[in-house]
């Protein structure tokens, strides 16, 4: 059996070489997808798989049809080769969505093209096996089967094959243009230059092979060398696509390594700042249960290591016996503000000391933080009394004016007794503070806001006392009234004057 153009060594070796290259890439990206679950790696692996089917089938066509002249086997590989080419109509737009930075509109267009391509691929594949003559004939040989030895085992192409070539050509042109536009607009030359060249080679190979089917002429630099230009072009396209994604992966890996170094440094700084401070830093879950605490919190507050999760913020609060629940109501109101509005809140409270359970005054700041997609509350508690500063105070005199806000009364009381511990004991200081608090509260409630004892008792029993106070604070008859406080402190005496 003689042919005008026998199978050349280059023509025979090129497909298996391409197959080996694509097999290596396919195994690599299957592993990367399994390892990282990134859909871009799946798209590359799918591309490589289709390329393997195409060039692998081409190898079988040349082996069984061109070398062994077994046309009955070779024609089935010819059909499989062209069926694999059908699914590029899906793989191409699908991969563009994963590779490019597209807006919602272009993303939707690519998705639509992918579904259209998939639908045609499925329909044409079914027809290829049910009605072979519409795609690749198993009985009618290719027109050039006795001219080119490589075509001996190929079947005649049908109408669905021609439609596929037209669609694939349009898809490749569209993909090339989209990659170039995205590369220019996003200035992403680093990752998209090679894929754009790859798509160009694939389009050129498909165009040259398609023209040869109809004209029997190769319109390229090697018109007398017979081999599948599309096999080479699609292999180059996939290899360039892989190189771009691999480069992207290496860049991400380098950025991740840098990020790990930064995080490591940040963690060291965090440990230094959090564990080295005298402030108590505690984190709570959404139920205000303790999740973590720093060294100062364990040393200063009633928190035992290993039992943090059983304690809540309210377990740390010190509320003297006989004192009204108003303090607790105010604290809860502030915390509700934190949850509802998400804004940080600042409070001055007494917390239980380690061991003795005695009260110690702290300024606390609470705010929302997000850790690993979990919402938590971070609290920083700073001791109000700085014993080192008391020794410098000899005397002080001050005049203060506050509005009708109960929380302001709490803060003012803390300031009024701030330097008392230098001259009197702790028990006396707490008694004076409690008395001042009651006087200032009465000045606000009964003097400025004109709240009677009966009204206060009723609102407190109903649990809406704070709302009742707020309504009075907004009343034009009371909102501008103030409480004035004067005090004098020296080594001989302390005097307070409170006016509403």
Can you put this structure into words, describing what you see?
The protein has 500 residues and is α+β, with helices and mostly antiparallel strands. It folds into three domains: 9-258, Rhopdopsin 7-helix transmembrane proteins, CATH 1.20.1070; 277-383, Beta-Lactamase (2-Layer Sandwich), CATH 3.30.450.20; 392-499, Heat Shock Protein 90 (2-Layer Sandwich). The chain is built from 16 helices and ten strands. The chain has helices at 9-36, 39-67, 71-86, 88-99, 104-130, 159-185, 189-215, 229-276, 295-300, 313-316, 326-341, 387-390, 406-416, 426-448, 453-462, 465-474, and strands spanning 136-141, 155-157, 280-284, 290-293, 345-352, 359-371, 374-383, 396-402, 483-489, 494-499. The chain has a five-stranded antiparallel beta sheet with strand order 4-3-7-6-5. The protein is rod-shaped and about 125 Å long. The model has no long low-confidence stretch (mean pLDDT 82).
| Strand composition percent | 5-15%
**What is the residue-averaged pLDDT?**
82
Strand order of the largest sheet: 4-3-7-6-5
Annotation, overall tally of beta strands: 10
Helix run count = 16
- In sequence order, what are the helices and strands, one letter per element? HHHHHEEHHHEEHHHEEEHEHHHHEE
Distance between the termini: 120 Å
The outline comes out as rod-shaped
Describe the sheet with the most strands.
5 strands, antiparallel
Count up the domains.
3
Q: Specify the CATH class of the largest domain.
A: Mainly Alpha
Query: What is the architecture of the largest domain at the second tier of CATH?
Result: Up-down Bundle
CA gyration radius, whole angstroms = 41 Å
Structural class, from secondary structure content? Answer: alpha+beta
